[in-house]
Amino acid sequence: MATVIDGKQMAASVIDSVKSAAANLEADTGVTTGLAVVIVGDDPASHAYVNAKSKMAKECGFKSVQHTLPEDTTQEHLTELVATLNNDPSIHGILVQLPLPKHLKSEPIIQSILPEKDVDGLHIVNAGKLATGDLDTGLISCTPAGAMVFVRRTHGEDLSGLNAVVIGRSNLFGKPMAQLLLAANATVTTAHSRTRDLPAVCRSADILVAAVGRPEMVKADWVKPGATVIDVGINRVPAPERGEGKSKLVGDVAFGECAEIASTITPVPGGVGPMTIAMLMANTVIASHRAAG
Ligand code: GUN
């Protein structure tokens, strides 16, 4: 049976450091770290994530501002809000929750966030720094940064000689995850929906990272014995499909059967999720320290 990583506990330790860093900054310079979170529309899952982020920001001692905009918000209005937040010196981090409603173009919005306030690490300046191996001066996307904490904890800083497979190629996760693994000297494969014989590709992985958004897609016979398996999926499976009374959150990995083959595995919930929020807080306090000089 694999060791199950306790994401909540590891996130709590990151949060402790963030609280100290925010308190120190305030004591030394009078600057309160500020995070603005923007959500457009009514998607209940997005609201739950955003509320958790705003709440954690408060717990960290930040100024925490949430802008909840209606579904019919225009591109111009959202662009103006981002510009206002860019110009507000009390705000060090700006997060626009994705996905945006269909009538809005997310890319111009993301690229309009100042790179130094882009705590999601999605601006091309931050993505470019990561892609060119600068891990120090930009901001790195929170979920991959959190997943790397688990990888380092299991394998150390240097992944030389290890094969890593990332399933998924999004800008928010798959691409930056692959870059981080590569920067740590892993041999990295990015697999996706067009990959041929995905189970065989996954079986080559010492470190297997799944971010596809398909409930329990990764099966036991996709997992190399002794591998580290990181599950980035959060899928709400409705009750009727499970033959149970309540809907349930499951990952992209069939946890029970894969835990019998892997040596280390992350659960859903309680794995990558809490760590993502912790890394968002870490990015925000990094941004406020940089802004304060
Ligand atoms: N939607 C799901 N995850 C994320 C995230 O990490 N950042 C943003 N902005 N939107 C998301």
Automatic annotation (TrEMBL):
Q: Which gene encodes it?
A: folD
Q: Which protein are we looking at?
A: Bifunctional protein FolD
Q: Where does NADP(+) bind?
A: 168-170, 234
Q: Where does this protein act, in terms of pathway?
A: One-carbon metabolism; tetrahydrofolate interconversion
Single annotated GO MF: methylenetetrahydrofolate dehydrogenase (NADP+) activity
The free-text function statement in the UniProt record for this protein reads:
Catalyzes the oxidation of 5,10-methylenetetrahydrofolate to 5,10-methenyltetrahydrofolate and then the hydrolysis of 5,10-methenyltetrahydrofolate to 10-formyltetrahydrofolate.
On the tree of life, the source organism's domain of life is Bacteria
Q: Name one GO cellular component term.
A: cytosol
Lineage of the species this protein comes from: Bacteria, Pseudomonadati, Pseudomonadota, Alphaproteobacteria, Hyphomicrobiales
Q: How does it assemble?
A: Homodimer.
